[in-house]
Amino acid sequence: MPTPVIRVSHLTKRFGAQVVVDDISFEVAAGETLVLLGPSGCGKTTLLKTLNRLIEPDGGTIEFNGREVRQQRPEALRRGIGYVIQQVGLLPHLTVAQNVGVVPGLLGRPAAETAARTTALLNRLHLPAERFGPMLPARELRGQHGAEALGGQVQAVEQRGGAGGGFGGG
Prior knowledge:
This protein folds into 2 domains: 1-79, 3-Layer(aba) Sandwich (Rossmann fold), CATH 3.40.50.300; 85-152, no CATH class. The protein is 25% helix and 24% strand. It is built from 6 helices and 6 strands; from the N terminus they run ββαββαβααααβ. The strands form 2 sheets. Strands 2-1-3-4 form a 4-stranded antiparallel sheet, with helices on one face. Strands 5-6 form a two-stranded antiparallel sheet. The longest helix is centred in the last third of the chain and has 14 residues, at 111-124. The protein is globular.
């Protein structure tokens, strides 16, 4: 297996007496895709939030490109990871493509670079940019125009640079 971009080893998270993430281990190499599937409440979101230190794990280790995330400042780590949550984290007045490009814009990335990278990321997630990019995220569910019409929760974490994704740079 190629060198992993993401390595999670024996990750555990508890909220009080309830174990939410229980001894999870996995590796993701550059170019690979990992999908988290499970019923509501099984710990998918908690696992994702531990990757970028929105939630601190109780045990185990998380590495991006060989660096333990707890050895990095949370703010610096988060600047290198794209994390898209459903509904609450999206700006309803912006299109899907504009939502994806918010952080690179704030970081001063050139508009052309941001647009090209946004198109590449949407296509990589099998969300054709020409179809999904212009959609507003909160349109009615029954119509063809809302990103929510994708039929499920879309959450993605992508390490900038390592997995061939993100917006590059520091």
